Amino acid sequence: MIIQGFSTIASVYSTNTKSAVGRQTSPAPAANYADKVSISDAAKALVAASQAATQDAGIQARIDAIKAKPGVERTEADFEYLSKNDKRFAELQEKMKASGKAGFDSLTADEVDYMQKAGGSVNTMAELSPKEKALYDELVANGNLEAAHGLMLVGMSRIGMSGQQVTLPNGKTFDPGNSEVTADNIRSLFKYMFVDPSGNTDRQFEALASYLDKRGTSDTTVKS
């Protein structure tokens, strides 16, 4: 039997086979290549984010270690590190410089509290109640810095007391941590916890007592 057109059939088969092989071995479409590039970029971004997180964790650990040190153990390098890496510490430093005022006189009670804790200085603000801190902010806002300093002295008088009674030179006994900030208590109790030949503390306490007299209130909270 003779099959007509065999050469034509063979030719078509050969063409179809080459086409199929070509489809199997040709490079991936451009869309697939773009996907690979996109995945690669995403992986790089994840690695970068992981490295940044690790770095941030290391910085925070160093900041925490510095803040855990007593103020007397801090070095100049510690202070510089905080200034560079503790954002709020740096911002408050700039606020203080820009104000042209001495010390913490340009800061709110909460800001003073942060700077005292971060800077390792005596933390007087932590000893004031929320209402007493509000009074401090009121004094600063009114420009009565002498009275504000007097209120900080109240905080200082409470440091380390933990409910202990204090016997004053005039024979009176009281607990600084459980005594309200009133004009009478300032004049008859708190001022006698300090001996200052310069007269500065007496002046600051009197400024605070006078302000409370004019304000006509004793609504600051009892220190708990």
Mind explaining what this structure looks like?
- This protein is mainly alpha-helical and 224 residues long.
- It contains nine helices and two strands.
- The chain is 63% helix and 2% strand.
- 21% of the residues are buried.
In short:
Helices cover 63% and strands 2% of the residues. The chain is an all-alpha fold. 21% of the residues are buried.
Helix and strand pattern: HHHHHHHEEHH
- The helix fraction, in percent, is 55-70%
Helices, by number, come to: 9
> What integer is the average pLDDT?
82
Distance between the first and last residues' Cα: 115 Å
For the sheet with most strands, the description reads:
2 strands, antiparallel
Largest sheet: spatial strand order = 1-2
Task: Assign an overall shape.
Answer: elongated
Estimate the strand proportion. under 5%
Give the uncertain stretches in residue-range form. Answer: 1-25, 218-224
- Structural category: mainly alpha
Strand element count: 2
Radius of gyration (CA) equals 37 Å
Features:
224 residues; mainly alpha; two-stranded antiparallel sheet; 9 helices; 2% strand; disordered N terminus; disordered C terminus
Write the layout of secondary structure elements.
Elements: H1 6-25, H2 30-68, H3 76-85, H4 87-99, H5 109-119, H6 130-141, H7 145-158, E1 166-167, E2 173-174, H8 183-188, H9 200-215
Antiparallel strand pairs: 1-2
